From TrEMBL:
GO molecular function annotation: DNA binding; DNA-binding transcription factor activity
Gene3D superfamilies: 3.40.190.290, Winged helix-like DNA-binding domain superfamily/Winged helix DNA-binding domain
Annotated GO CC locations: protein-DNA complex
Key words, A-Z: DNA-binding, Transcription, Transcription regulation
UniProt KW Cell cycle keyword: no
Protein name: DNA-binding transcriptional LysR family regulator
Length: 286
């Protein structure tokens, strides 16, 4: 039994379906299903009641969840204690609403002094981000909306614009700019790192009752390879292009709808301002 299995089990227990859990964990659904099955075999019991499109913890699963949460909490406590003891580092925890600003800022954290250790994670929505700061789970939260609270400082740090990655021979490749309405019925190939920006764009299609054929790829390397040979369109952004290479056979065309622009805000507790001074400076100069 591995800690990784227990972490995956806890996420599955909090989700309605295995597919939903796989999205949160950024792994494929078959891989997650295999991991759960191996855990059940090792424990000798079934942990879920399975229906056609949903899973629900049974009594064994509820008890297993209590044990798993206790074990993981103790493992985290042990790891944090000895890491801090061994390195005497400033351990900073950052939560991001999108992969774009996270992957864009990560290389800049290397500019921090050696006694700083930065741990990145993702979160689902602004309400959750606010709670992460207030309960002390995170030191800094990067959100798509300012987190308004009397104890929190919130200010804009980055902005981004969506781009459409278009094969040079594609009918849309003749345009200098595009709108979201131009995309259907063409197929979109997308890396499966869902976040606020993509949700903002897909919400546009739902509001306007437009059908968007979209294929998700879980693995970044496979995504890059498929993008090289595919005729599909793909959403990218100005931030994403700092770490993503769409190859020489594609054009990156700006999307101009309001939904294709986003602002990111850095949020932190007022009483942590002095402690976070160096990392905030690095982020602002990025």
């Amino acid at each position: 039994m591995e800690l990784r299995q227990l972490k995956q089990f806890c996420i599955i227990a909090q989700s309605d379906t295995l597919t939903q859990a796989a999205e949160k964990l950024f792994i494929s659904q078959p891989a997650l299903s295999t991991s759960l099955k191996n855990l059940e075999i090792e424990l000798g019991v079934s942990l879920f009641d399975r229906k056609k499109n949903a899973i629900k913890l049974n009594k064994n699963g509820e008890k297993a969840l209590q044990y798993a949460q206790t074990v993981l909490a103790k493992a985290d406590e042990m790891q944090d204690y000895f890491r801090q003891l061994a390195s005497n580092r400033h351990s900073l925890r950052l939560a991001f609403c999108d992969a774009g600003p996270m992957w864009y800022l990560m290389p800049h954290f290397a500019l921090l002094p050696e006694d700083y250790a930065v741990k990145n994670s993702r979160f689902a929505d602004s309400e959750n981000g606010l709670q992460l700061l207030l309960d002390g789970s995170q030191d800094i939260v990067i959100s798509s909306q300012p987190l308004l609270h009397e104890h929190i400082i919130s200010r804009e740090i980055l902005s981004d614009q969506a781009l459409l990655s278009v094969p040079k021979h594609h009918p849309l490749a003749t345009y200098n700019t595009l709108c979201l309405n131009d995309i259907p019925p063409y197929t979109v190939l997308q890396l499966n790192v869902k976040g606020h920006f993509l949700a903002q764009i897909t919400a546009y299609f739902h509001r306007h009752q437009l059908e968007l054929p979209i294929e998700y790829e879980d693995d970044f390397i496979n995504f890059q390879q498929r993008l090289t040979y595919s005729d599909s369109l793909s959403f990218s952004s100005r931030l994403a292009q700092t770490y993503r290479n769409d190859g020489g056979k594609r054009l990156l065309i700006p999307l101009t709808d309001e939904a294709c622009y986003i602002r990111y805000y850095v949020n932190y507790l007022h009483n942590n301002s002095k402690t976070l001074e160096k990392v905030l400076r690095v982020m602002e100069e990025a």
